[in-house]
Write a structure and sequence with these properties.
single chain; 147 residues; alpha+beta; Chemotaxis protein chec; six-stranded antiparallel sheet; 5 helices; globular
Length: 147
C-alpha cells in the first residue's frame, strides 16, 4: 500500500531518491506531473491511464476539462528510476513546486505527492489548524452523496 511520509535531499541537477517503500508498489517507471496546492504528483503507468481516461472522457468543448488536461497532462513527464531509485525532476516541475533542498514524499494510496519541505510544513500547519472544519465539510459531502 502506498502510504507514509518520507524525505529525500534534492541533489545536484535536481536529482531525488524516490522512497523504496513506494518503489516496491509502483515500480521504476513513473509519471510525474503538477499537482494541486503547489506539490507534484507521481503515479505508476496503470494509475496514469485511469487519470487520463477521467480527464479525456468529457467533451472537448468544456473549458474545465480542457483546463484540467492542460494542467495535468501538459506538465507530465515520464521518469525512469535508476538502480538507487533516483530520478531528475524536470526543470519546469522544479520551478512549479519550489523544490530546492529537501523533498517530502507523501503516500496517498493511489499516488504520491512530492512537496518542497518548506511548502509542506506550511500546508501541514494549515491542515492542523483547519482539520476539524475540513473533516466536517467531508462529512457533509458524504451525507449528500448517501441521500
Amino acid at each position: 500500500m502506498i502510504i507514509g511520509q518520507y524525505k529525500s535531499k534534492v541533489g545536484e541537477k535536481n536529482r531525488v531518491a524516490f522512497p523504496k517503500q513506494f518503489r516496491n508498489e509502483m515500480g521504476d517507471k513513473l509519471i510525474v506531473t503538477r499537482g494541486y496546492e503547489g506539490c507534484l504528483i507521481a503515479v505508476d503507468q496503470k494509475r496514469w491511464e485511469v487519470i487520463t481516461k477521467e480527464i479525456t472522457q468529457g467533451t472537448f468543448i468544456d473549458r474545465k476539462i480542457r483546463d484540467a488536461g492542460r494542467f495535468l497532462l501538459a506538465g507530465a513527464h515520464e521518469v525512469d528510476l535508476d538502480t538507487q531509485g533516483r530520478f531528475v525532476v524536470p526543470k519546469g516541475l522544479v520551478e512549479f513546486s519550489g523544490l530546492s533542498k529537501e523533498a517530502v514524499f507523501l503516500g496517498l494510496v493511489n499516488w504520491v505527492e512530492i512537496w518542497s519541505d518548506e511548502q509542506w510544513r506550511e500546508h501541514e500547519e494549515y491542515v492542523k489548524e483547519n482539520g476539524e472544519d475540513i473533516a466536517q465539510e467531508i462529512a457533509e459531502v458524504i451525507r449528500g452523496q448517501q441521500e
